[in-house]
Amino acid sequence: MKVIKLLFIIGSIISFLLTGLALYCYFEPFTEAISVYVFLGAGFLFAILGVTLIFLIFYRKEKEKNSDLTNQIQVWSNTTYHINAAGDQAFEDLPVGIVAYDNDYLIKWVNVFFQNQMQVKLQESPLSIISDKLVEACDGTKDKFMINIADKTYDCVHNKPHKIIYFFDVTLREALKQKYQNRTLAMGVLVVDNLDESLKRYDIQEKSKISGEILGDISDYFEKYNCFIQAIDDDRILIICDKESLVAMKNDKFSILVRIRDISKSSHLKSTISIGFASYDVSSMELGKYAFSALELAEKRGGDQAVVNIQGKKIEYIGGQTNALEKNTLVAARLQNSNFKDVTTKASNVLIMAHDFADCDALGAMIGALRLVLSYGVKDVSLVIEPKHLDTTANKIYSYLEDQNAEILNYIVDEEKALSIVGKDTILVVCDTQSPRLVMFPKVCDKATHLAIIDHHRVGTVDFKKEYVDMSYVETYSSSTVELISEMFIFSPEAKISPLEATIMLTGIVVDTNNFTFRTGSRTFEAASTLKEIGADMVRVRKFLRDSYEYEKELAEALINTEIFYNRFAVSILNDENIPDRTLLAKVSDRLLTIEKIDAAFTIAKLGDNIVAVSARSLEGVNVQVIMEEMGGGGHLQSAACQVPDTTIEDVRNTLIDILKRDYGYEGEEKMKIILLADVKGKGKKDDIIEVNNGYGNYLISNNLGLLANDNNLKKLAENQKQAKIEEENRKNLLEKIKSEIDGKSVTIYLKLGADGKAFGHVTSKLICDEFEAQNGIRLDKKKLDLPNDINSIGIYTATITLAKDIVASFEINVIGN
Predict the structure, then answer these.
(1) What is the spatial distance between Cα 771 and Cα 165, in angstroms, rounded to a whole number?
(2) What is the C-alpha to C-alpha distance for residues 570 and 601, in angstroms, rounded to an integer?
(3) Which range in 9-23, 203-217, 643-657 is most confidently predicted, on average pLDDT?
(4) Edge-first strand listing for the sheet containing 144-149
(5) What's the pLDDT at 370?
(6) DSSP string, 693-719
(7) Burial group, residue 476, by CB count within 10 angstroms (0-12, 13-18, 19+)
(8) Which is higher by pLDDT, 431 or 686?
C-alpha cells in the first residue's frame, strides 16, 4: 500500500510536468503532432491518477470498517468468555432445580443446587426417588404442575421432548397463600333446638340454671377456638372466626354437639343444637347468606349436626347421630296449611307429583294433597301418575283403585298430558322428595316455575332452585309425608276423603315406620288415629302389604346369601341380573334387622343399565344416612339408600366394607392403644386412652381425633394432665376469691314507675350485670346469673351466679322506684 502511494505521488508530479509541457507546446511554435502526444500522455496519466485516488479513498473506508469489526470481535470475544462463565455458574448454582432423565425414568444428570437440596444421591437413581407422584405427572399431558417434596413445594416445568424438569421452589409463596386462605372470614349460625319447649315443665330457677349451663358451654367451646360470638335472639347465636379455626373445629367433629346432647340427656330434655358454617372469599353479606343456608340445611336434615360449607370443597355434614326431635305442637301444621292454601288458590291450575318408583307413602301423600287442594275450592287439580313408575305395592293399590272404579282416578293424568297443561301460573306440588333428580317426571318439573314441597326426608346436596319454591313444608322428625298431610286435615275440616283413600294413606305410614317400629312418635299415632276415624281399614292395609309366594322365596334366598361382618353388620347381595322391584332390597334389609346382634343391614343389587343400588337400615348406634351419603345417596339416620352408576356389585360391596372397616374396624384385628384428642361418641372423651382395632385406630389418627399411645405421647399426656390439674386448681382458687368478693355485695337498680305506681318493663340480667360492675367493679356473666323470678316491681331480691359447678355466689338486688 505504501508503494502505491509513492507511485501515486510520482505519477502526480509527472502528470503536472507533462501538463505544463503540453501548455507550453500549445502556445509555442511546436508541431501539432508533438502537442497532441503530450496532451494524450498527460490525460492518460491523469486518468490513472483518478482511478488510483478513487481506490485509495475506498481502501481507506474499508480499512476503517475492518478496524471497527476487529474491535467488536475483540469485545465480543472478551464478553463471551464472561457470559459462558456466568452461564456455567447459573446452570449449576442458580436456585432452580434441573433434572434430566432417560426413557426409563432414570436420572442422568442433576444440577448442583438441586442435588444439595435432596437428602439422597439423585444421579443414576429412578425419578421416583424425588417423589412417587413425579413419574405420574411426567406421564401426563400437562407441562406445568406443582409437587411437594419433603417440606418444600415446587412449581415444575416439564420439557417432555428433551426429558428435562425444572424445579422452582415456591414454598414461601404457597405458605403465604395458605396463610391468606386460613385468614379467610368464616361465619356461622347456631340454633338451640327445642329448648323453650323442653324447659316448660321446670321452674324459673331450674330453667335459668340449665339454659345457663348450655349457653355457657357453647360460649366456652367457641372461645377456645378464638371465635367471636353474639346472640342474635333467644335461641340463635352468630359466630365469626377465620377459616383456620373453622377447620380446627371441623377436625374436632364439633364436640360441642356431643356435650349439649349429654347435658340434655342428664337434664331429661329433648334439646340439641344445629350449626351452619360457611367460609368464602366474598362480601360479608354474601357470606351471611351462605351461613344461614348451611344452618337451614342442618335443620332440614333433622338438627343435632353441623353443616360446613367451605369454598372449593364439598359440603360436609358432622353429627346427626340422633333422630330429629318431634315437636309437641301443631303450630307448624296450621301455618303450612294456610301457606298451602295461599299458593294453590292463586295458581291457574295445580299438578301433584311424587318421586319416581313411588311407594305407599308417596302415593298416599299425593291423594291427601289432592283432597286438601279440592277443599280450598280449587277446581283444576291433577295427579301426575303412570303405573309403571310405581313400586310393586303401590302398583297393586293402583290396580285395586281401577277394580273399584274409584272416583279419584278421574284426577289422574299422564306425563304427556301434564306437559301440555303446565303454564307460567301452574304450581307443581312435589310430595315425598326434595330432589329434582328423583321426581317421577323430570320434564314436568323442569317446565314448572312454581313449586310446593311437602316431605319428611333429610335434604341432600341437590335440591330445587329456591326462586321456584313458593312453599316448603319439610319436617324430618315426621315418620312419613302422609303424617304431615294428615295433620293439615285438622285445619281443613272441609276436606272430603273416602275410607279407601284413608286406608291408602295409613298404608304409607305403616310402610315408612316398618309397622310403627322406626321414627314413630306420639304424633305418628295421632295421624294414624285421624285416618282411622275417617274409616281407614287396617285389615285392608295388611292385604295391600302381603307378598306373593315367589317374592317370599326371593326374600328367603337373599337371607341365606347374607354375609355377617364384624358381628354386627349384615350385607346381602341379590345376584339376579336385574331386580324388577327395588322394594325387595328394603324388605331384605328390614328383615335382616330382626336377627339378633345385627345393628345395621345393607342389601345390594343391580337395577339395570350399570346401576347398582344399596338399601340400608339400622338400629340405634349406626348412622346409615352418613354411610349412604358418602356413597352418593342419602335418607334418614336409620333408613337410607343410594344408587351408584357405571359400576359393579363387587365394587360397591368393597366400597361399603371399606367404610365399615374405617369407621368400626375388623373384629379379631390386632389392637392398638389410642389417646383421644377429642370426644368420640361411643368410644371415650378427650385424653382418654382406649384400645381399638388397628383399622379404626388409624382412622382416628388420620382425622386428628387421636394419637398413638406410645411412651413419648403418654409422657406428654401425663405432663399436660399435670399442668391442667394445676391450672384447674388455680382457676378454682381464683373463682373462690371472686365468690368471696361477690358474696354480701348489693346493687341498686332504679325502676321507672308510672303514675299508678306500676313499673314500666322489668329488670333484665344485662342491666343487673352492668350496674353491678359500675357499682362494685366486678364484671358478671349474664348467662351464669340466676334470678328467682322476673323482677318487675320494687323490693329486695337475692340473685345467684354460678361461677363453677360447685362454686355459687350470691348478692342482693335493691330495686328502687324512680
Answers:
(1) 71
(2) 5
(3) 643-657
(4) 107-110, 97-101, 164-169, 152-159, 144-149
(5) 95
(6) EHHHHHHHHHTTSEEE--HHHHHHHHH
(7) buried
(8) 431
Q: How far apart are CA 45 and CA 627, in angstroms?
A: 114
DSSP 587-617: HHHHHHTTSTT--EEEEEEEEETTEEEEEEE
Query: H or E element: which one contains 244?
Result: helix 243-251
Q: CA-CA distance, 644 to 649, in Å (whole number)?
A: 9
Give the whole-angstrom CA distance, residue 640 versus residue 476: 13
Backbone φ and ψ for 796, nearest 5 degrees, come out as: -115, 125
Q: Which residue has the cell 344485662?
A: 766
Query: CB-hemisphere CA count at 13 Å for 21?
Result: 16
* pLDDT at 325 (0 to 100): 46
Q: Reduced to 3 states, what is the DSSP secondary structure of residue 809?
A: strand
H or E stretch including 562? strand 562-565
Residue 579 has a CB neighbour count (10 Å cut-off) of 18
pLDDT class of 90 with cuts at 50, 70, 90: low
Residue 664 in 3-state DSSP? helix
Please give the Cα distance from 789 to 691 (Å, whole number): 49
Q: What is the pLDDT of residues 412-426, one digit of tens each?
A: 999 999 999 999 999
DSSP 403-436: HTT-GGGGGEE-HHHHHHH--TT-EEEEES---T
Q: Cα separation of 407 and 498, whole Å?
A: 10
- Planar angle of CA 593, 597, 603, nearest 5 degrees: 35
Q: Measured between alpha carbons, how far apart are the two ends of the chain, in Å?
A: 126
Say yes or no to pLDDT of 566 above 50.
Answer: yes
Environment class of residue 326 by beta-carbon count within 10 Å: exposed (0-12), middle (13-18) or buried (19+)? middle
What angle (nearest 5°) sits at the alpha carbon of residue 47, between those of residues 44 and 51? 145
Residue 673, sorted as left (phi over 0), alpha (psi -120 to 50) or beta, turns out to be beta
Amino acid at 787: L
Nearest to 566 by CA among 729, 471, 696: 696
CB 457 within 8 Å of CB 636: yes
Q: Do residues 763 and 781 touch, judged by C-beta distance below 8 A?
A: no
3-class DSSP assignment, residue 185 = strand
Task: Give the chain's radius of gyration (CA, Å).
Answer: 44
Q: C-alpha cell of 134?
A: 413425579
Q: For 807, list phi and psi in degrees, rounded to 5.
A: -125, 105
- φ, ψ dihedrals at 446, nearest 5°: -65, -30
Number of neighbouring beta carbons within 10 Å of residue 47: 11
2 — pLDDT class (breaks 50, 70, 90): low
Distance CA 344, CA 375 (A): 11
The helix-helix angle for 392-403 and 538-545 (nearest 10°) equals: 120
Q: Are 347 and 454 spatial neighbours (Cβ–Cβ below 8 Å)?
A: no
The single residue listed with the C-alpha cell 414454598 is 171
The phi and psi torsions of 299 (rounded to 5 degrees) equal -70, -40
126/303: higher pLDDT: 126
pLDDT value, residue 784? 83
Task: Give the number of other CB atoms < 10 A from CB of residue 517.
Answer: 12
Give the H or E element holding residue 389: none
Q: In what order do the strands lie in the sheet with 236-242?
A: 228-231, 236-242, 185-193, 272-279, 305-310, 316-319
**CA gap 405, 407 in Å, rounded:** 6
pLDDT at 576: 66
- pTM value surpassing 0.85: no
- With b for 16 or more beta-carbon neighbours within 10 A and e for fewer, the 610-647 pattern comes to eebbbbbbbeeebbbbbbbbebebbbbbbbbbbbbeee
